[in-house]
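User: Fold this, then the next.

Assistant: Folding the first:
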Amino acid sequence: MSLRVIAIDGPAASGKSSTAALVARRLGWAHLDSGALYRAITLAVLDNLGETAGERGKGKGKTWGAQHIVALAEDLPVRLVLVDDAFRPEVAGVDVAQAIRSERVTERVSEIAAIPEVRHWVNVQQREAVQDHPRGVVVDGRDIGTVVFPDAPLKVFLTASPEERARRRLAERGGSRGGEGGGGGGGEGERGGESELRREAEVLAARDRADSTRAVAPLRAAADAVVLDTTRLSLEQQVQAVVALARERLPG
């Protein structure tokens, strides 16, 4: 059977998760957010191996061992569970979809995701999840089209200006958007004015640098990906564009 995967990649707050979820719904496919699995592992590490472990050179505890982290993920377990056509992250049988969005997880997830053994483990979980789905899966992340599913028949790389991405992230925290949706350039959802916007843009820029320069699976568009700049697109426009591509390349 041919691979029925739509790979959606891009930097933080580019609209990946919201777009992927709605595209999956329109097509009747499942949605898999790879970032949720990395966040679930990070939450498991913080809760079970300690908040301070891993802070090298600070004398706050021993470092996290890669094999220890993977063993923890297997034993608890950390896993993806298909619920109503969406893969939900669970840790030790508990739904952690909300808990993984905490600031403490956000601050450490890049550190955990940069570990090669962790990335390999996550990739295996994603490939197994996709194989088990009868129709197709829309997967979003940062290396889906380049590493996890390089043979995906449709790869999309979403981009947006740093300022627009910062507005979206602030609006998301304020509850005025459901996820990483597109914004069309509006700033009504931001909190704290321009200074907070600048701070958030700096945080996102630092995340971009970390993701794009890491030695393992750096953030980049696949050579055959469709690059879609969402800066001035609404969420609905983003979804329509990807759905049109999907129906063209993956009929039926």
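Now the next one, as you asked:
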Amino acid sequence: MLYLKIQIRQIRKRESDNSFGPVKINYCKMIIPELPKDEIKRQEALKGYSVLDSMAEEEYDNITFLASRICGTPISLISLIDDKRQWFKSHHGLDATETPKEFAFCAHAINDKNNIFIIPDSRKDERFHDNPLVINEPYVIFYAGIPLTNKEGFPLGTLCVIDNEPNSLDEFQIKALKALANQIIALFELRKKTFELETKTKEIEARNVVLKKFAGNAAHDIKSPLATIVMVADLFSHQYADQLDDQGMELLEMINKSALKLTNFIDGILEYSLNSGHLSGDKKTVNIRESLNDLIQLIDPIGEVKFAFNFQSELTIYTNENALDQILLNLLVNAIKYNDKDQIRISIMVEDLKDYMKFNITDNGPGIKKEDQQRIFQIFETASTTDKSGVTGTGIGLAKVKSMVEGLGGTISLFSEIGEGADFGFTLRK
């Protein structure tokens, strides 16, 4: 036992000025709670949830309201025990937000982390009969607390109910309190994961800023000498054509093509790395048919390809127009570049679903092998086919398409049979 001279600040606030009531001084003899085992680790676990001194939240207030109604008590608290106090994440029926730790019933309750702690009448219990919270407001006569024990086994505090007269709980009420306590722990864990995710997101965003800057500088530094190589190769082939044999001209052409291909490859990597810039721009209502007509005019100005639209002309979608154009442009260009037919046919179908808009781009090309249909969406992966000019793709275009589709809340898939063309389908969240 410990004799204490206790200075208590009354918890009732004056409505007029939000000030606290008068200070009372009491002399009392009481048993202060023992520290739980592994107290240092328990305190670290509690701080890890970043919940102490946080703002009131409806989810927690709903729980204390339910606990009070279920148990028929005027007060219910979500109490967390730190090194000096018990702090209330939610306080139904009580104005106070904290009390000293040495007065806290909950500080006793957490020493038995697996069982409910019930005091039917604190006036008859030697641990609490002269506790300032018993002999003064809020007059804690009846107390029942369920320890809030996390998955590592540390009791963080309690969900408790309080009455100012003797009381008891039946089996149903105890079971309900335990269920509500489990829900509090679930909310704590969700809070912790959310904070961790936000921290990681900020770290990733910071790294992306550095990577984008590096990618831009690297692209510029590499493209400049490549442009010089292309220019010199062209100049050399024109000015010294009469002094070079066929093999020499072929070597110059090889240098030229390789430099151009590498330039295009670098452009593709840079554009892929900057995809988030496309998605973060302003969204607007896009008329799908008008957007497709503009793209088709760009890639097939003389009408060599037969396009078929299978959707209503007035279909619109609220999305990032630039990203949508990039997705459609890549799929349409691929359907033309890799087509082996004399007459290229491309069908475009759009369906207005409940939460998504579904697009299908179907061609009459050579088709894609089943073993290639998943990996072609991965960066730097290509199918074994080449385009009409005999050039193999960089493996960036479809990876970029997949990244943008998923960034807009959708998915992309491919259905294809060899000799039967390919059907690229993707959805965008409306």
